[in-house]
Amino acid sequence: MNAAWVVVADTSRARIFSVENAFSPLVEIQTLDHPEARLHAGDLVTDKPGRDRNSGPRSHDIGHVDEAKHDEAVRFAHQVCAALESGRAQGHFNKLHVIAAPSFLGLLRKQQPQPLQKLVASEISKNLTAHDVETIRKNLPHRL
Predict the structure, then answer these.
(1) Which range marks the domain in which residue 92 is found?
(2) Within a domain: residue 53?
(3) Which residues pair with 90 in a beta bridge?
(4) Predicted TM-score (pTM) of this structure
(5) 25-52, pLDDT tens digit by residue?
């Protein structure tokens, strides 16, 4: 089996493609959506942030609404890597190409189990999730 998989992802969507050889077209086999990533950060936090009452005349918020967005991104990276690991374990591919938004690429790296990491043939730091298949293919190495 010479199949390769290509994952194109950002914090709210991942598209997984299969390609049989260097000259065959990309075939989309799975799409994962994470609508929580599109929510406003305040919608992800149920309580108001705490307040810091220091001795000065001002107080400021404690608690990080941005942490909620980051936590959702980590959760989705884990979900994407679980789908990829399942495909690897079932022998569906022997090479993986990762194209991800710069802010999401590092999260994917951290969530990949060791056996999956060994199959990563290339990483491209671009957000192409909304692009057509031809554009995605042009950004991949010529020889898959």
Answers:
(1) 4-43+63-139
(2) no
(3) none
(4) 0.80
(5) 999 999 999 887 665 445 445 555 555 5
